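Human: We require from you a protein record containing the residue sequence and its fold in token form, and nothing else.

Assistant:
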Amino acid sequence: RPVEQFIAELDVLLQNLHNIPTTKKQIQFNRIQTNKSFDTLSSIIQSSQSSQSQVIIRPKKKKNYGRIVKRLKYKIHLANTVLRKTDKSKVFHLGTVDHYQKKSEEYMEKTKAYQCLGVTDPLPDLIQRTNKYLLDLRLAKWITQKQYEQLSIKPNEVELAHLYYLPKAHKPGTPLRPIISGLKHPTIKISKFLDDLLRPLFD
């Protein structure tokens, strides 16, 4: 049973790691990094549970996989580790928070393409400027009223794009692949609108 074996091995590993001292900053970073991975892990476990139920003939008591995942998530949090789905492979990578922080800082320093915002929040200004630009287009009759309403930004529906990483477990040193998530970025509607408008020219 691959799922039970994976859980057992991970449980033993975390037992050996949970005494590593952590800081408040590291705990917060760990929590953010592991949320998406546990959603994926939970889906895999539930899928495996469904697959196994199809081949079992005799009725068998279902295991509470949700509780198991919750327990493992808590132990990984205590162990100051990060569980992530790897890049281009169907496995998970278990690494330390320090490793991810170091690799992230090295990448940001090397590319100079990103910066930590800290307490600065440019989102309200970005929303205001984008909506003003759309209004100017509407008043100039470059877009219709319907298009203006479709493209206008509602503050409760958007968020800033953020940077995260997928570990490349198949390469020496486990480098990280940067991913920019901007599905709720304020300009995503405009981007999709232009894509629909221009794509037929290249198809």
Notes: Strands lie at 81-85, 92-96, 162-167, 176-181. The two ends are 47 Å apart (CA to CA). The mean pLDDT is 78. The longest helix spans residues 24-55.
